Each structure stands twice: as structure tokens, then as C-alpha cells.
Amino acid sequence: MGGLVLKLSPKERILINGAVIENGDRRSRLSIVTPNANILRLRDAIHPEDANTPVRRVCYAAQLVLTGDETAEASRHKMLRNIEELSQILTDSDSRALLAKASEAVLDDQYYQCLKALRGLLPREERLFAARLS
Questions:
Q1: Got the DSSP string for 76-98?
Q2: From CA 60, how far away is CA 111, in angstroms rounded?
Q3: Which helix (H) or strand (E) holds 110?
Q4: CA separation, residue 44 to residues 16, 64, 107, 112 (Å)
Q5: At what angle do helices 54-67 and 72-89 cross, to 10 degrees?
Q6: In angstroms, what is the C-alpha Rg of the chain?
């Protein structure tokens, strides 16, 4: 059986196709078998005021598709362009691999996978900004 498996902490909240779902008092595991379901862990959500760096802005764009606030069609071209711009700056092999996964996910309308790949770039981006300010 394929699909996405979510492991939830007690009281953790997720958004699935626009509905907020809260886990009970115990850890649990959900298997999402419906293809193309829009899912967002609310602990991973980026607030609009926190979308203040290049990687965070692309993450936020993917998040808007997952929450239903933007359509995939309206966001796809801009997200691909922003990912391409990031690839001009983040040239190491690990970053390139994550950016390639993010691009492929956007092309396949898999915005959760796109967000997951982009989130892997956040620590690197933070280090680069910290080094720049030093």
C-alpha cells in the first residue's frame, strides 16, 4: 500500500484538504491513501510575516497551495522560477538535490513533497545569513 504515512505526536494538528484535525492524547500513525490530498502539519506552517527569506518565501508559496489559498496553476510558474533562482545561489550538491526534488514535486503537483524538500534548505540558508552578518 502506497501513500503518505504521518506519525503524529499527542495533540498535534494537521490540515487535510482544508480540515484541521487534532490528534488525541497518544502518538498515532495515519496512512493517507488518497492521492493528491493536500496535507500540512501545522507545526511546520510558516506564518506570512516569517516568509522573509528566499527559501521561506518559496516554502510559503507551497504552503498556500496545500491550504487551498492558492491554486497549483496560479503558483506553479512562479515557484519553478524561484526554485531556479535558488539553484543559482545554492550550488552545493546537497542543495541542488533538494532543489531538484522540489522542482520535480511542483511539476508533479506534489506540493507536500516540494515543501518537505525545501524545508531541508532552511538550516543551510540560516547558516549563510548568519555568516554574512558576521
A1: HHHHHHHHHHHHHH--SHHHHHH
A2: 11
A3: none
A4: 14, 13, 22, 11
A5: 160
A6: 15
- Sequence-distant (6+) residues with CB within 8 A of 68 are 17, 18, 38
List 6's β-bridge partners, or say none: 30
C-alpha cell read off for 109: 503537483
Alpha-carbon distances, residue 25 vs 1, 8, 28 (angstroms) = 27, 10, 9
Among candidates 97, 106, 92, 98, which has minimal Cα distance to 55? 98
Predicted local distance difference test score (pLDDT) of residue 1: 45
- Please tell me the distance from the alpha carbon of residue 34 to that of residue 19, in angstroms, as a whole number: 15
> For 18, how many CA atoms within 13 A lie in the half-sphere containing its CB?
3
Write the CB contacts of 94 (distance below 8 Å, at least 6 apart in sequence): 124
Residue 26 DSSP label? S
Q: Taking the chain (134 residues) in consecutive chunks of 10 residues, what is each chunk's mean pLDDT? A: 81 91 94 84 91 95 92 94 95 95 95 93 91 78
| Residues sharing a CB contact under 8 Å with residue 101, sequence separation 6 or more, in sequence order | 113, 114, 117
